[in-house]
Write a structure and sequence with these properties.
Elements: H1 2-11, H2 33-45, E1 47-52, H3 58-73, E2 77-81, H4 85-96, E3 101-102, E4 114-118, E5 132-136, H5 146-155, E6 161-166, H6 175-184, H7 189-196, E7 197-199, E8 207-209, H8 214-222, E9 225-228, E10 246-253, H9 273-282, H10 284-296, E11 303-306, H11 310-319, E12 323-325, H12 332-344, E13 349-352, H13 354-357, E14 368-372, H14 378-386, E15 397-404, H15 408-441, E16 453-457, E17 460-464, H16 467-470, E18 479-484, H17 507-524, E19 525-536, E20 538-540, H18 542-545, E21 549-551, H19 553-562, E22 567-574, H20 578-585, H21 592-598, E23 608-614, E24 627-631, E25 643-647, H22 653-666, E26 670-671, H23 699-709, E27 715-718, H24 725-732, E28 736-741, H25 744-757
Parallel strand pairs: 1-6, 1-9, 2-4, 2-5, 3-4, 5-6, 10-15, 11-13, 11-14, 12-13, 14-15, 17-28, 18-19, 18-27, 22-26, 27-28
Antiparallel strand pairs: 7-8, 16-17, 19-23, 20-21, 22-23, 24-25
């Protein structure tokens, strides 16, 4: 089983270090202690992300990282940065004594081992020339098209050393973390979603971390990223990085009837995105007038005026004396020189858009910020403020927001996103604090405990633990029958354990792990006897799988069992109500409105299947064909208080006729009469962090399978016991049971259910239940 243990080690979703060690004495002494240690960690990691708040010295850290990589490999390193940040980084390099060449093309011999260029110039460089790449202000990637983001990831896919630096990896969007992971060569965005996230209902655009995966998700992030708002987050002295106070001033201009939108009798607040844009455009003159008035109150101060529309920046530049405008249509040289002139103090009033000047620039000489209106992007708003309100700022910062009285929805939207961002950042720091501190300071972490336990009773043995390990103790050819519902690959993940086969990053990993179990099931099952598994085909989603469709999971499972020697014996389709499925999943293919829109995307519901496999060979203990039916409420199973009729060779003819009728119903390839609610009570086993309701196998299905393919006294095995449904029915029907369950809360409930079903002492003979 060394191979299984090796598989579990490889399955652990952490970023394996692939870098090199450096002596702390070789790090530039100008770096603070936390910066030095982060650089050493990032070099040791090889591919890492630094999520450090504005002013914590990301430029110094990435330059020192690039210098060390270039010296270690003997090949140059390239830094990709937003416009104007490139020149600023060159100046930062001079402070450290590091030569950085600012180029727009990689043709010819490189003048330095560290090259910096703008994102837009990336295509003019050959990635193979460089041993390392740094993407500065890496959150900018989501501002570009998906094609550009993918181009960055693909172009540097084979680059050995990678570093991503930003202050805001995802202020209110977890998916941005997936972009960073994919760039660094860890999980792809899709793999991250499948492993750690869940979406509720049909809103596939809103994903959240699974309850039970919270700690594992942040531990995975902390294996390749460091997050800090202040050095104190990592246990360092953060007193010198306390920011001065930030003051918000919201100014609302009254529109009267001037801003009455088309079709309105009176001026009404704008609610839709289009209405907000119309209101913002219509109120430009009023807001510009107010902005000019505010700037005039501090004529000797340095002002940064942020706009979103061209007409706003044009009007503001005319209305404010001494104001210089930078627009998207300006040349790259003009943009760069003007922005640096403002940073250097040669210009005191600058007007531009956050999309042009809102990333990476150090504007802490300016303490007066004014927004000539807002759009709905919190990240742009946050980044624009942090150009001035950052570590190194010595004055209190005043932020003025000017909107019309019809734009309240925009302000409320930004406030809501700001609250979300604050909660997410606190959540990130809280979960990553200890792990990051241990990583950076090279302390040892303790691994999660793997628990094993055994409980037994009359006719049953229940094991807490991994069935792959547990089946090793069962003698070969000793199990009469096995029935279970395997994990549905990564669709439903019930725990954060690497031993949980539902906790896989993709289907290939699931079936690689599942193969360890199928071979053991083949070994322990008697020749000529059967194994049944309950499953369904799996829906594919656009976000997780890249396409809407259905995966043939049933067929994949059959092929997995065939690969170890099993033969497909039979299968039955179990009907499921498509209306119930539509209400629960909101699947586009089941919605009636899709019929009207484009029925080519409409589909039938997804059925359940009971698939039965046979181990080749001669059955040493034939099974007497005794069927059992229930008289009473339709769908009532073994848990009901009903009269049972035994039918077979030794019963009257009328019972035999009934037996034939029952067999004809059981022999049908489709079972239409299975009651989906006929399951064991499950809520007491559900934990607070569980994302999915426990999905126990219907008791009727288990009971029919045991009637058909087992004798009284046979031993039934379930490698995925759950809350004990298969064992409960087995004991009720005078069979023995052996079960394995990995999740402790499920195991505890299963033991209670098994004890409630165990027969009287002495019912079974002296034969022991297999261990």
């Amino acid at each position: 089983m060394d191979s299984y243990q090796e598989f579990l080690e490889k399955k652990k979703i952490v970023s394996k270090p692939s870098g090199f060690e450096v002596d702390p004495e070789t790090i530039n002494p100008m770096l603070f202690d936390f910066q030095r240690d982060i650089v050493r960690w990032a070099l040791r990691q090889g591919r890492a992300a630094i999520f450090a708040d504005c002013g914590l010295g990301k430029s110094f850290m990435q330059l020192e990282w690039a210098k060390s990589v270039a010296e270690h490999t003997g090949k140059p390193v390239i830094i990709l940065a937003p416009l104007a940040v490139s020149g600023q980084t060159v100046r930062e390099g001079k402070k450290l004594g590091i030569e950085v060449a600012y180029l727009r093309s990689g043709k010819g011999e490189l003048p330095s081992n560290i090259v910096i260029t703008n994102y837009e110039m990336m295509e003019h460089f050959d990635a193979e020339m460089f041993s390392g790449v740094v993407i500065d202000e890496s959150s900018i990637l989501k501002s570009y098209t998906g094609e550009f983001r993918n181009a960055v990831i693909e172009r540097f896919g084979q680059t050995q050393y990678k570093l991503a630096c930003t202050a805001t990896p995802a202020p209110n969007d977890y998916m941005e973390l997936g972009n960073h992971s994919e760039f660094l060569g860890n999980l792809t965005r899709t793999e991250m979603l499948s492993t750690f996230f869940v979406h509720d209902g049909g809103d596939t655009s809103k994903w959240r971390v699974k309850g039970h995966a919270q700690q594992d998700f942040w531990q995975w992030i902390a294996s390749w990223a460091v997050m800090l708002r202040n050095p104190a987050d990592l246990g360092y002295d953060g007193s010198r990085f306390v920011l001065p106070e930030l003051h918000y001033h919201h100014h609302v201009v009254s529109s009267g009837d001037k801003l009455r939108l088309p079709g309105q009798l009176f001026a009404m607040p704008a609610n839709t995105l289009q209405e907000r844009r119309q209101a913002r455009s219509a109120s430009t003159d009023l807001r510009v007038e107010k902005v000019a008035e505010i700037v005039a109150t501090e004529p000797d101060a340095c002002w940064m005026v942020w706009c979103n529309l061209n007409i706003e920046s044009q009007a503001a530049t005319k209305a404010i004396e001494g104001c210089i405008e930078v627009t998207g249509s300006d040349s790259m040289d003009y943009k760069e020189s003007t922005l640096l002139s403002f940073v250097n103090g040669d210009i005191d009033i600058l007007c531009s858009k956050p999309s042009i000047a809102g990333l990476g620039l150090n504007m802490q000489r300016c303490s007066h910020v004014i927004f000539l209106g807002l759009n709905d992007s919190f990240e742009q708003f946050y980044q624009a403020i942090r150009r001035c309100w950052r570590f190194g700022q010595t004055q209190e910062v005043h932020c003025h927001i000017v909107t019309s009285d019809l734009e309240g929805a925009v302000v409320e939207n930004i406030k809501r996103k700001e609250q979300q961002a604050q909660e997410m950042t606190e959540n990130m720091v809280e979960h990553m604090h200890s792990i990051n501190e241990q990583n950076i300071r090279r302390q040892t972490r303790h691994e999660d405990e793997y628990k094993v336990r055994t409980e037994s009773g009359t006719g049953f043995t229940a094991h807490l633990g991994d069935s792959v390990d547990g089946l090793l103790a069962i003698p070969a050819n000793s199990i009469h029958y096995s029935i279970f519902s395997p994990p549905f690959a990564s669709l439903y993940t019930y725990s954060a354990s690497t031993r949980d086969m539902g906790n896989c990053r993709d289907h290939a990993e699931f079936f690689a792990q599942f193969s360890f179990l199928t071979s053991e099931l083949y070994r322990v099952l008697m020749p000529g006897r059967l194994l049944s598994f309950h499953c369904m085909n799996l829906p594919l989603s656009k976000e997780r799988d890249g396409v809407i469709g259905i995966r043939d999971f049933r067929g994949d499972l059959i092929r997995a069992f065939e690969a170890v020697g099993f033969v497909l014996h039979s299968e039955v389709t179990i009907w499921k109500d498509p209306v119930t499925a539509m209400q629960r999943t909101k699947a586009i293919g089941l919605l009636h409105k899709q019929i009207v829109k484009d029925s080519c995307m409409s589909r039938q519901g997804i059925a359940d299947y009971l698939v039965t496999m046979r181990k080749p060979g001669v059955n040493p203990e034939s099974v007497a064909g005794k069927l059992r039916d229930y008289v009473g409420e339709e769908g009532t199973g073994p848990t009901g208080n009903v009269t049972m009729i035994d039918v077979g060779e030794d019963v009257p003819d009328n019972a035999t006729r009934q037996s034939i009728e029952i067999w004809q119903r059981y022999a049908s390839p489709v079972w239409m009469d299975i009651n989906p609610s006929d399951t064991l009570q499950k809520e007491s086993a559900r934990e607070n962090d569980d994302e999915r309701h426990i999905c126990p196998l219907q008791l009727q299905v288990i009971e029919r399978a045991l009637q058909l393919w087992t004798n009284e006294g046979d031993t039934v095995l379930s490698p995925y016991m759950g809350i004990g449904s298969e064992g409960y029915v087995s004991l009720k029907m005078r069979r023995k049971f052996v079960g394995y369950e990995l999740k402790e809360s499920y195991f505890d409930q299963a033991v209670l259910n098994l004890r409630s079903a165990q027969p009287e002492v002495g019912l079974f003979d002296a034969q022991e239940v297999a261990l």
